[in-house]
Amino acid sequence: TEVVHLIAAGEVIDSLAAVVRELVENSIDAGATRITVSLWADQWRVRVADNGAGMDLDTLKQAALPHTTSKIHDRQDLWNIRSLGFRGEALHSLSQLSQLEILSRSATATQGWRLLYNAEGESIQVETAAIAPGTIVTVDHLFGNWSARRQGLPAIAQQIRSVQSMIQQIALSHPHVTWQVQQNDREWFNVWAGETARKILPQILRGVQIGDLQETTLEVPTPEETDSSSSVYVLLGLPDRCHRHRPDWVRVAINGRFVDIPELEQTILGAFRKTLPRERHPVCVVHLQVPPAHIDWNRHPAKAEIYLHHLSHWQLHVTQAIEQTLRLKPE
Ligand code: ADP
Ligand code: MG
């Protein structure tokens, strides 16, 4: 079982960027509006600090044990996943693959706690800590005992770029969060919060021509459910200049997470080609909010690929939303 566990851990945590993804998603699930990410790639160290709900001492002691999640209690919950995390694997995997330390203080507590965890996810040191409400998780010496794993990874420079694009993607699907990102104790980049992705995209696509940004949100019916609502959000930029060789820039998020869903990407590109000349290459973000029961996240351990039920229904409404956005005149 030891080996089986480690394979599972390695599937979820396969890089520095994956560490950042898991920690940051926990911060967002905890309601954080401010997240600071610090990276020391040469030391294989990542720290994520947030102003979210924090944890009490009991929760802290449980947090890195196998399959502890505060989010799934019965089978019904599995069909009702609203949070980004739900398997209760990330912190446990991190305790196996690194030195894990968590400082946390819940909003109502008068003091915080600092815990160190062993490779089984048990707390081996507990002390009080004077911190602001929120949580600070530090992952150090990632893959320190797994040198083959380190050697199999891309060069550090490439991993650093992956961390950056991971944070930018998550920022784009959670525009209400302000990000401060540091590398080797120095400021690296920031993303300031906004109402929608429209405020975020220009901050992360610097140097890329994006034109005037238009956005549309359509409330759409949910298949087989009359009392729940779904929505399609489209953010679209159409640079003036035509580029014969520039690729289209299209990203799709579903319920707060960017996913690879080629079927929907084809739909989006198809909607462009119906109206736009070949040389016009839009920049486009599509964000679907659908009832959790319509998504099966279990296609992929990192939740990057999903099954979306009633695909053709969503394809139809995405096409409508794009056509509507293309008709909007720049202000
Ligand atoms: P999951 O996110 O799937 O529930 P994790 O292993 O990522 O599993 O986290 C385990 C639990 O630890 C979470 O369910 C949550 O209760 C708690 N937790 C982790 N990170 C944070 C955080 N930044 N703020 C508050 N609680 C957290
Ligand atoms: Mg999680």
UniProtKB/TrEMBL annotation:
GO terms for molecular function: ATP binding; ATP hydrolysis activity; ATP-dependent DNA damage sensor activity; endonuclease activity; mismatched DNA binding. Signal peptide: none annotated. Keywords: DNA damage, DNA repair, Endonuclease, Hydrolase, Nuclease. It comes from the Bacteria. Residues 201-327 form the DNA mismatch repair protein S5 domain. The keyword Transcription regulation does not apply. GO terms for biological process: mismatch repair. GO terms for cellular component: mismatch repair complex. This protein is involved in the repair of mismatches in DNA. It is required for dam-dependent methyl-directed DNA mismatch repair. May act as a 'molecular matchmaker', a protein that promotes the formation of a stable complex between two or more DNA-binding proteins in an ATP-dependent manner without itself being part of a final effector complex. Belongs to the DNA mismatch repair MutL/HexB family. This is DNA mismatch repair protein MutL. It comes from Phormidesmis priestleyi ULC007.
